[in-house]
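Q: Sequence in, structure out?
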Amino acid sequence: MVQFNEISFDRFLLLLGFSVLLFILHKFINRYVIRWAKDERKQKFIKEYLPLAINVLWILLIVYFIYKLTLANPIVSIAITGLVLLLTWHTINDFVQGTIFKIQKGNIVDQSIKIGELSGIIVKMGITKMDIQLDNGETLHYPYSKLYTQVVRTTTNVKHFKNCIFTISVPFTADVEMLKKQILVSLLNSPWVVSSMPIKIEVVNQDAEKRNIKINAYTLDDKFIPKIQHALAESIPLV
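A: Exactly. Output:
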């Protein structure tokens, strides 16, 4: 008969409660604390070291649980650990590789990245994967484990730039390619647009009277977006 004298029900509830608390704390800090930290240096410190601290705490919690389970019954402990590893191997692998990647690279959110043939900007670094906004505007959820089978390059740090995305409407009869060139020239000549960053211009939908064009560029501050839109309205025929 299997005995679990070393793990009481109260201790099991304590471990479970600590796990839930750790998860909630992680979400709370990501959503609120970083916003409250007005100082850029504090924000950088929190963004860089918080994910590492959370990952280390999870690892310690898992190791402690396995240790206590081994004290209770080694055979059952090996069986449960093996089953958990089998069912969650990909997640564990992504988690470990993500921790190593963050230690090596630090916080590289908002930096340009090139992975093989893919290129884009990192918009989020999660626990098991990172979100990359590709050059075509799509968001790719990329597992950390795949990074170690590819050549990874990170380029210019753009964390102080603001992504500026908005839509304009132009007459349906207007030449689209010519308009795109005019929009690009206008944006490149704008003092409020970061010309060194990629600018994306694409038609998203249209009807019998107009075409809607989505513009994705970078500026130094959100307050400049209305000025960029106003400058475009003066140089491009809008509906």
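The beta strands are 111-115, 118-125, 129-134, 139-143, 152-157, 162-171, 200-206, 210-219.
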